[in-house]
Fold:
Amino acid sequence: MKKILVLGSTGSIGLNTLEIARSFQNKFKIVGLTSNNNISLLEKQIEEFHPEAVVVVNKEKAAELKTKVAGKCAVLSGEEGLLEITRRGNYDILVSALVGFAGLAPTIEAIKQKKRIALANKETLVTAGEIIIGLCKEYGAELIPVDSEHSAIFQSLIGEKKETINKLILTASGGPFLNKDKTELEHVTIAEALKHPNWKMGNKITIDSATMMNKGLEIIEAFWLFGLPKEKIEVVIHPQSIIHSMVEFIDGSIKAQMSSPDMKLPILYALTFPERYNFSSVKTDFARINKLTFFEPDFDKFTCLKMAYHAIEEGGTAPCILNAANEVAVEKFLSGKIRFTQIPELITDALEKIVCHKKADMPAGEAGLDLIFESDFKTREYLTKKHS
Amino acid sequence: MKKILVLGSTGSIGLNTLEIARSFQNKFKIVGLTSNNNISLLEKQIEEFHPEAVVVVNKEKAAELKTKVAGKCAVLSGEEGLLEITRRGNYDILVSALVGFAGLAPTIEAIKQKKRIALANKETLVTAGEIIIGLCKEYGAELIPVDSEHSAIFQSLIGEKKETINKLILTASGGPFLNKDKTELEHVTIAEALKHPNWKMGNKITIDSATMMNKGLEIIEAFWLFGLPKEKIEVVIHPQSIIHSMVEFIDGSIKAQMSSPDMKLPILYALTFPERYNFSSVKTDFARINKLTFFEPDFDKFTCLKMAYHAIEEGGTAPCILNAANEVAVEKFLSGKIRFTQIPELITDALEKIVCHKKADMPAGEAGLDLIFESDFKTREYLTKKHS
Structure:
């Protein structure tokens, strides 16, 4: 029985994780759940999974839930609650599925507890990749990617040596606007941007897919996770999302991992690695799929991709600024305050205006986190004021 | 320096092997070469690679070559020459690339020498799979597949456990007649049958691709190589031959190995496994490939596929009869004696008329080989007489 703590249990990855726990009741025990606000769903999850503790980030909602579930489980609150529940350490695997930069601090706590981290929160590596990788080594924590792309690469690398990698090929669906002209993007609506062709995901990541910043963040994530130079990380558009990503080796051979798009597969693998459990709910029938297509990404239309490579080159807190700006911009787009094409504009603005701490100027290891939190804060502050 | 003995060095796999040896002169040393008849090419190969010994199966040609290369290398002759050169044991890897059933006996000699066998001769496993797998275990010989399909499966299984395999998915180009009606097959010419859309290969295997018996033989080969029931071995038509085959695991995840079609890749891998060598001559550009397609195979048109599954079910010497009949039939087709559609007819005829030794009636282990040689002989004799 593996004990699992799910950060973000009412989100898309969280719900899929619980569905897996439901399918493997003799393998996984849910010991902790968290939500920002959704206490009605969290209450149902408590009824079903009987966790030892839950966190509600919103303090009022936490108090409300506390009265409802009194005696059934501990209810913590606030961001400090997220830190506390990870610090308690009574779990084997952390499913890190918070949205955005908020995932960083609690993930670090789990690393210090030497746990396996099933990492769905890509911002953790995007903003603090070097520190996170260092901490994992220092504490002996295991980082298993949950993103379907990184899981595909991780799986393709099983039994292979890092020095035999020629390049990573991240596949990208291209999102809902793959076939729109650059000029048409000016006028797309929130509803259109939220219609992902293949994946059912949360709103933030769905918008990131539409701008292709999601792939940009994944490039940065892969850079840290697999320790390769950015020139060895390519993107290819593959609208069907069947091939989840590929690795080309130095002998010219390419390995790939595939399946019908369903996040349960990479989540399950992150929980069971190096084992595989019998899970028959996801079927892939190639004869029915019939066709897989591939295109070069349009870097002129999807400028977020270019920005991601640029942020890696800049290094230091540049990826953190990129990420914070993107989070603010997506939020503003989702609340109708800016147009879709303003998302990359805001990010460019932030990257130009916010002081980027260079790697050379940052203290080594965990001490560097302060500057990352500072860059994150300043970026949010700047964009919130400027575009309020 | 790995010492390599190439059985069938003037054939397609042999030439590709020598091209690899040429590219890695500080890694591989060619110590032996063989050819049935082609002494002019073999002489050039001797000049270039300086093997210790060569075999020419045709005895007259062998004598002719002997006078030409006197003092440069030993020249053996006949099928006994093939056995002798493998028995000498002064090599690390045997590249088993003879065409057809002739590959079986010398491959067994190499197994007994406890060598690595880079197996391109699929008939070895098709006709005597159980015995070969048993001998490899007994002598501690290593069998690494060279067929692109089996190499793809082998590579996809690196680091994975056999019990987590759900099924193998062999890809098939469908050959030159994929889009012809069954009735049109009656009138296809030899030249048409020899035009493979993707792979440059020898004549025998190219005709096998046109009838899809090649895929049939590969099903049987996979059955022995990976030790799975036939129900777990599927075929999907994939005309571009980029995905060389796939493995579906019990969790629903699929792994695949891919590349532009070039036999040098699986040959190199069989030589270097578990390492990979830097080899940049084969490039795969997905954006340029643009499209991969998949279809169910038409078992009514390509009856050879059905026959292969049937032969596995029959067991004993049934696959041997199937293979011998196919070899005779292909030869007859290539020499203009029968029509293309008569190939499966001859095989069906042989499978009905030749006594199949059941597994239960065969002595265990190597002793069973006698009945395999007998079935092979009787099938050839029967079909040669009947359709002469």
Summary: The longest helix of chain B spans residues 122-139. The first strand of chain B starts at residue 2 and ends at 7.
